[in-house]
Amino acid sequence: MTDHLVLDGVTRRFGSHTALDDVSFTLAAGSICGLLGRNGAGKTTLLSLIAGQDLPSAGTIHVNGHSPFEHAPTLAGINLVRDNQRYPDDFTVGNVLSIAPRFLPHWDADFAKRLVAGFRVPLNQSVKKFSRGQLSAVAIVLGLASRAPLTLMDEPYLGLDVNARRYFHEALVRDVAEHPRTVILSTHHVEESESLFDRVLIVDSGRILLNADIDEIPEIAFTVSGRDDAIRELTAGLDVLRLHTVPGLASATIRGSADDAFLVRAEAVGARIQGVSVADLVTAFGSESAAEAVAA
Amino acid sequence: MFTGTTPLFQQLATRLADDIVSGTYPEESAVPSATDLAVFFDLNPATASKGVNLLVEQGALYKKRGIGIFVAPGARELLLAQRRDRLRADFVEPLVREARLLGLRPAEIERLVRDTLAKEPS
Hints:
CATH architecture of the largest domain in chain B: Orthogonal Bundle
Number of helices of chain A: 11
Number of strands of chain A: 13
Strand order of the largest sheet of chain A: 5-6-7-3-8-9
Strand content of chain B: 5-15%
Largest sheet of chain B: 3 strands, antiparallel
Number of domains of chain B: 2
Low-confidence stretches of chain A: 291-296
Largest interface: A-B, 21 and 21 residues
Mean pLDDT of chain A: 91
Number of helices of chain B: 5
Structural class of chain A: alpha/beta
Oligomer: heterodimer
Mean pLDDT of chain B: 91
Distance between the termini of chain A: 36 Å
Order of helices and strands of chain B: HEHHEEHH
Largest sheet of chain A: 6 strands, mixed
CATH superfamily of the largest domain in chain B: Winged helix-like DNA-binding domain superfamily/Winged helix DNA-binding domain
CATH topology of the largest domain in chain B: Arc Repressor Mutant, subunit A
Radius of gyration of chain B: 18 Å
Number of domains of chain A: 2
Helix content of chain B: 55-70%
Helix content of chain A: 25-40%
CATH superfamily of the largest domain in chain A: P-loop containing nucleotide triphosphate hydrolases
Order of helices and strands of chain A: EEEHEHEHHHEHEEEHEHEEHEHH
CATH class of the largest domain in chain B: Mainly Alpha
Low-confidence stretches of chain B: none
């Protein structure tokens, strides 16, 4: 696989606020990548820059070797669907579907129709009157039926009910398997989507705190829990990403793997060791202690 | 669907191996395609392919180009042999650790295993 997307030292400032701070990563073509982090972490800013809808204050972005900004051939292969996507007044879904191919050269009208039916979105009602979940469904239709080689979906889950979410996942997985392309999906609802990703990027306070293949997750960190004094003693000098305590009990998320010596020490004080999920990592990297650890 | 701390592709491979051992997929029968497995289990298509390929590499599944993926002849015996190799590490060692934690002496652990064998119909 080739590097489809390359970011090098990308910084974006808005006045005195730094929304993205020296972000560098590469993404191979064909990936379904999860862009994860808390609200305000910088996910939307990052997607706007990748989509060429904004310019970085410093650094470079390349999609297939080109800066996307005002480069029409590159932009033709990118589709960013925003969570607050705006539509012209009184537009119906039917209007949206008929105008989409003008902006999205890889548009598949039949697939779009199937998706609209699958989500049970009303075709002839003004989009302005839609519920949050219906708006998300329209955004997902625009994202999937665009078949854009680089599809960016910002918070596609907002307001989706369980059935719609299930339907979205099935449609995404099947269509990407049959028409390979790169998808970056930003979300702060990590549990419900983490099994879809082959790569995860965790963003917090404008910085990439983790960029990992999904199969590497078990090796990135572990948690150890038990009596609070025992946990403090066990974890002294280790890279603690997150410490969660209530009186008498503590759970620490530690970067790295537990070695044999640690396992012996943990067993001696009755501490339990567990692996982490992607959701655990997002929580750990988004916690204050992790932010300090990064700053230090 | 899948959780925990082992990579998802390994969990999928384990699940397929369980289904081959239990006879859900008899030898020479077709298993679902990687895409169908991905859709069914909410997995990334690459993750599902990796899980299937793990069993192909081990010789439990084989691919017929353009037709599908099939359970190899002898797959069940192959997977059972793998499990026999792991019996000590996966079951006997945890049993002994737990029994020691509870303060059981070696003779008591042996008696426990003998009694259980006697009760279980073979």
